[in-house]
Please model this.
Amino acid sequence: MNIVLCREDARYEAGSQLLAEWRLRRVALDALQSVEVSILWQTTGKGDEDFSVHHFRRYHLEELTEIGLESSHPVSSLLPVTPLSYRGHLIEIGWLVRTRVFMSDGREIVAEQPFYLVSSLPSPRESTASSTPDEETVRVDDTVRVAPRRWKKLIANYRQRASS
Amino acid sequence: MRRTWIAALLRPYGKKRGPHSRTSVASGILAELAFYAGLILTGAFVLALVIMARLMAERVGIELPDEARRVLESELARGGDSRWGQWIVGFVSVAAIGSGMAGLFYRLNHLGFSQERLSANKQRILESGTGVVKGNKAGGSANTTALPETSDSNAVLQQMRREPTVPSGRAGDESPGEWLAHRLPMLQAGRTRILGTAALSLIWNSVCIVLFAVVVSGWWYNRNRPILAMMMLPFTGISIWSLRSLTAEVRRVAGVGPTLVEINAHPIHPAETYQVVVAQLGRMRLKQMKVSLVCEEQSFFRQGTDVRVEKHLAFEQEVLVSTNVRVDPGQPWKQQFEVPIPANAMHSFVAENNAIRWRLVISGEARPWPSFCRSFPIFVRPREPRRGHVPP
Model:
């Protein structure tokens, strides 16, 4: 399963439109029960987790049969103004596109694609003139850490599948 | 692996280890189902007992064994000695059955729902209650929850301006200012502490007076109590200490005159500069008066049955420092100054378990009065989104 965002830097301005695509591969249609696609924010850190779903769509088997699994399927949503992505000492606020696949044998497979909701994006001139991001992106963005996280999740999913 | 799963299932309370919770979701659901089932069974048992005791036992005319008769004649089945007792017990048991069945139905109906689906359903219910309509895709499928994607720019802008998790910025006790547009309310802190100190001092001193009276009366009637008289020395020491603590608390809270803080606009936005007026009333000499802009992260987490809070100062900026401040009743200390809000400031954020709060902190170092520190919460809203902006 893969989720592709319309922006390579995964950075979206508050109140802008998010476009993404999700695709399932190497899964037979009769092995599926349903698929849920959601856009949500969640907190991580010392405190108990808070989360809220901004966009949610559930595809039943009939709908999946109708749209097919060969091609990518779009997800589109107008993002809210808040909460902005934040990386603090006790609290982290992160946005993500999450796809949850319910298999007919009762298993659930989850794939996530994090992205950043920022108050404003640097204009194209600014971004070409200077390769260093502004103060805010330094604070809220941390693309370096995303890759290991995704790898960890992939490995965990693979181990779960292998053990089951 | 298996042992861990069983241990997690049997653990009666949750515990958080870093970002991970040690309690499984399944154990929570099972406990909830067991609770509702128990409620239904208990309610049904008590109701059956009441019905049997009131209606059936006398009319059927069957010779019941002694054990059964004893149960039917128990206080619970008779509802005590009052006239309406049986009705009250019957009503409570029906309520228990009803609430148990409703809970069980809700839980079973949502069994297998993902947390995203539950959250989306909850939001749909909340928003239908507040009149905010969320658009469904063509076909009116109940599976889709999305923001309305309409061409009406006003509606989109209005929708965009919805700022979930940002406090509205209008505290109930905020009032118009005298010098600037808004007077900020003070965070009431330390009131419970002074109440606790006062209660401790009052109780301890009352006990000491009674004991002192016993010692004096013993001496008067030639029944000396030397041990109690000796004990009075440390007791009196504690009594003096508690009175001194109470006096210090009262001086800290009531001795320092009121502090007034006014701002020209509220809520505030990052990368803007605001005019602030701080006025200190009363009569005192201060070695130093400091005004700081502070951002604090707060995290609430459950540890067993306790709810704990952890705080971290994420940002602190001194905006004004004055030394040798003199405050007189006819001439309060008043300063007007600018407070720049950083461009990368995070907006105020309040969720169920986490919060990011901004406030202006006024602290004074005084002699002979104790030093004081007062907080005035302010709400930071995010910058306005660019209208009509389409990402590349």
Summary: Helices of chain A lie at 61-67, 124-129, 135-140, 143-163. Chain A touches chain B through 56 residues (CB under 8 Å). Residues 109 and 120 of chain A are 34 Å apart (CA to CA).
